[in-house]
Amino acid sequence: MISFTSFPSRFAESSYDSTRHHPNVKDDLMDLDEYEDFAAQGSLNKLTCPGESLTSSQAYMRGHGTYVDNEEVIASVAGTIERVNKLVSVRAIRSRYNPEVGDLVVGRITEVQPRRWKVDANSRQDAVLMLSSVNLPGGVQRRKLESDELQMRGFFEEGDLLVAEVQAFFSDGAMSLHTRSLKYGKLRNGQLVTVPPILVRRLKSHFLTLPCGVDLILGLNGYIWVSKHVKTNEQEGEEGFDAEAVYSNVNDDIDDSTRNAISRVTHIIRVLTSHFVPLTDVLLLEAYEWTVEHESTAKDLLQQEFGDALVASIAPSQ
Amino acid sequence: MASRVEILNEGGYRSDGRRQFELRTIDIDLSQQGHADGAAVITHGLAHVMVSVFGPREAKMRSQTIHDRANINVEVAVAAFSTGDRRKRSRGDKRILEFAATIKSTFEPVIQTSLYPRSQIDIFVQVIQQDGGLLQACINGTTLALMNAGIPMLDFVCAVNGGVHSTSPLLDLTLLEENDVPNLTIAVMPKTRKVSLVTMETRLHVDRFEEIFRLATEAGLAIHGEMKGAILGRSKSLMGSIELGSQQRSGNTAADAMDDDD
């Protein structure tokens, strides 16, 4: 007769490394919710998940990622517990981008509306770019005319990518962007990579130039723009704000070696992201050197073993 | 009746060799799927469901936005090859729409939608293989996918089904048992032990209800342990690789700073 044995686990990597008990035996992870421990433990990297009570709401204040029920502060997302004095919050490991004023973001225009553009910036709502917060041709400071409003698609069209800064928030939490700096504006000559926002940390500068002739813009929203390097003296100066160049839709001529470098950098970013390694300039540069050293072509990086070796070489103990 | 499979034999074993209150093995995979914000693949024995969550994000249709909270959109797709008899169901199938509405109403009170006004949370459920306990697998998978996406929820939602064979209650029914036995599905929130869903499509004697209800609630807590372990394990591995990467950086930037001085 046909008989079945128990089925083998389909997901080898998802097998739990903890010992398994009968449900009546409490695992040690259940001990998280003791109040006395909470005050003593460092706020460092304690993991929690929704429904787990963290502490008493009388002794502590609830922050993001928590709620109060029955005089207890309870986690509402899975992530790390963070404590600043009496404020307890839980930071989710993966979530959408949470904007803050002054953040640099890369976004894509989704809609042109009266006197504003809607921009997809990986946030919970589309961001707003007002006509009054972009640089217009003919001087940085001037009033917006009706003619500007009529030719808004001349500046940004649906599908255009741009780099901007978070200026303010609306009452419903949507963010307002501005591009009132010569660093900001429309993007061309490159490629977009999307990563989880948590992997882009705040750096001194989010405009990086790698020595291989590639410029990087690390948007804090997890959108990364990889493009051909533009020399600083060729960039439009304060005086000669050249609207035609800034709002141009045509790519410059990009030679083969630069194309190669761009795709190599994007592949490196994808590999690092798939291993959940936070991106920094140093790390990217190191990874780039490693790939050149190993005489690989850009497409080799897409192979699993090659990517694993890359990550192992730059984060050794992994 | 030799050809008929016994639901529960004299030895107290069911058709697939389980005891009365034994649950099927659960497999959970929380790895990244495409560009979804959160995803989960869950199997209860042979029932196999994949859930992807997108959002909170801008609503595709402006008419769907709610000004003070997020809108939850659930879409269920049943693969044609998921059942024994190959059958293609259209997306507009009434049964599937009702099924999606059940999932939606189960999660609406649990997700903290008021934190995301005017946004939309899309939940896409793909049924890959069916073997009873379809709703339970979909609900558990959705819970995991939502948590994986970092969407704030009051608690886990753990679903399990149960039935009564003559007088003996059974838990976690397979398709074979589901066809033969009056059954119900319960979704429980383990922290408060609140029940956010009870559905029954068959008729069950009222005297039997309380017993199976109590048992299923307890089984929900056991499933909660599995789901929590999977979520914490996933969080731990992700945090581990983030920390490794950060350590590497702090070491390097110190070296960089020295280079700059030269």
Task: Characterize the structure shown.
The complex is a heterodimer of chains A (about 325) and B (about 260). Chain A has about 325 residues and is an alpha+beta fold. Chain A has a domain at about 10-90: Beta Barrel (OB fold (Dihydrolipoamide Acetyltransferase, E2P)). Chain A has helices spanning about 35-40, 145-150, 150-155, 245, 255-275, 280-295, 305-315, and strands spanning about 45-50, 55, 60, 65-70, 70-75, 80-85, 85-90, 105-115, 115-120, 125-130, 160-170, 175-180, 185, 190-195, 205-210, 215-220, 225-230. Chain B is α+β, with helices and mostly antiparallel strands and about 260 residues long. In chain B, the strands form two sheets. A five-stranded mixed sheet of chain B has the order 1-2-3-5-4. In chain B, strands 7-6-8-9 form a four-stranded antiparallel sheet, sandwiched between helices. Chain B is built from four helices and nine strands; from the N terminus they run ββββαβαββαββα. Mean pLDDT of chain B is about 90; it is low at about 250-260. In chain B, helix 1 (about 95-105) packs across helix 2 (about 135-150). Chain B has a single domain (about 25-250), classed as Ribosomal Protein S5, domain 2 (2-Layer Sandwich), CATH 3.30.230.70. At the A-B interface, helix 6 of A face strand 1, strand 2, strand 3 and helix 4 of B.
Please specify the SSE layout and strand pairing.
The complex is a heterodimer of chains A (318) and B (262).
Chain A lengths: L34 H6 L5 E3 L4 E4 L4 E2 L3 E4 L2 E4 L3 E6 L2 E6 L11 E10 L2 E5 L6 E4 L15 H5 L1 H4 L5 E9 L5 E4 L6 E2 L3 E5 L12 E4 L3 E5 L4 E6 L14 H4 L9 H19 L6 H13 L10 H11 L4
Parallel strand pairs in A: 3-7, 10-12
Antiparallel strand pairs in A: 1-6, 2-5, 4-5, 6-7, 8-9, 8-11, 9-10, 11-12, 11-13, 14-17, 15-16, 16-17
Helix pairs in contact in A: 5-6, 6-7
Chain B lengths: L25 E4 L8 E7 L2 E12 L12 E8 L15 H14 L11 E11 L4 H15 L9 E8 L2 E4 L3 H6 L2 E7 L4 E7 L5 H56 L1
Parallel strand pairs in B: 4-5
Antiparallel strand pairs in B: 1-2, 2-3, 3-5, 6-7, 6-8, 8-9
